[in-house]
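Researcher: Next entry: FAD-binding oxidoreductase (Congregibacter variabilis).
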Amino acid sequence: MLSPQQLETLASLVDQKGLRTDEESCLQYGRDWTRVHSPNPAAVVLPSSIEQVQAVVRWACAENVALVPSGGRSGLSAGAVAANGEVVVALDRMNELSDFDATDRTVRCGGGVVTAQLQEFAESQGLFYPVDFASSGSSQIGGNVATNAGGIKVIRYGMTRDWVAGLKVVTGTGELLDLNRGLVKNNAGYDFRHLMIGSEGTLGIIVEATMRLEAQPAERAVMVLGTPDMASIMQVLRSFRDRVRLEAFEFFSEEALAKVIEHQGLARPFATASHYYALLEFEKIDERAEAAAMECFEHCVEEGWVEDGVMSQSLAQASALWRLREDISETISRWTPYKNDISTIVSRVPSLLKEVEELVGANYPDFEIIWFGHIGDGNVHLNILKPDAMPMEEFQARCGSVSQGVFESVARHGGSISAEHGVGLLKKPYLAYSRSEAEIALMAQLKRVFDPAGIMNPGKILDA
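Model: Predicted structure:
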């Protein structure tokens, strides 16, 4: 706990409005979407400027107080959890957009700018910010960069990393780094910008990001297709990718669809029930694009890869079809699911999924399993739903005991234990399945360079 004198000093650094110690604020800001660890921060600070962030970090160094950077708190790896008396640094007040440049198609975002806020700004300028996911209404740009957020359009537009033109980062010593400054070409030595992207706040606090924007795509259409198995989904992907300009290619299981329909009051996309569903979005550049999509659909039906399907005829229908996929996480959250966010190269997804399903089925015969994910970029989400009567500790222990087998399968397929959710606390014990001993040692050395006092989000990613 912090002493009254320490709290008084903190308040002087961020002003009284920027310091919170009440129980409700500590609960709100001390956790993310995970519920494995109980939040227990000593205080929450909400700085309103880069200078205030620097002052807080310098104070923390002098007082040997650990800091946990906090964005929109929508993470799924416990990367923003403050469970051990840390001070949470929340960037909610640093939420301004500035210095828009129509020529460069860039805009500066405070670390607390909400993703949807950036998307709406881009649209107001006739442009487009393509990184998108279900939590865009609450996630913040600083957190997106710190976790290299992906989402539903990676197949065409890539990850957050691909849209970061520059960063301002406060390191663990309080020093401000101004990285890349919006340049397109810059080969003057190491690019620390990319080191900070995905570092989960362990090397510094991302206080500002210069983000690139894109031209608005043409009108988009959405299709939902029912398939008998995962192998068929891959055939559908290959068929459509060769003929239309895909913006997204998602999948979900019948079990996932049934939950969404039951609890969100949505209608089935069509009468036929299939084992799996592919949701794809494509750009209707002209009439030929829609005709090509229909030709693909008919070909896939003839080959037996698709059992039924529907294509949106309006923006409202497209949005309704997207809800079948986007509402899954919110729907199943009531069962406090145990999540695994795994990936491999796209061509190996069916064999990875088969191995994992066999392992999970053998160990969880009494549990409900929900599959969904970004199949177009090789990322699948395994969700095991907690039975209502089972205590959380028992549920976590049973699921955790099988995670090793899941990650062994991931390693055999040359994949990642965390495709887009980050490592945080939850995936830290399994990092060696994706990173070599030498890589982990170098990561620890880099941590000490940027955070010599070890105060920046300690215990996340690494024990060091």
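Model: Note for the record: The two ends are 22 Å apart (CA to CA).
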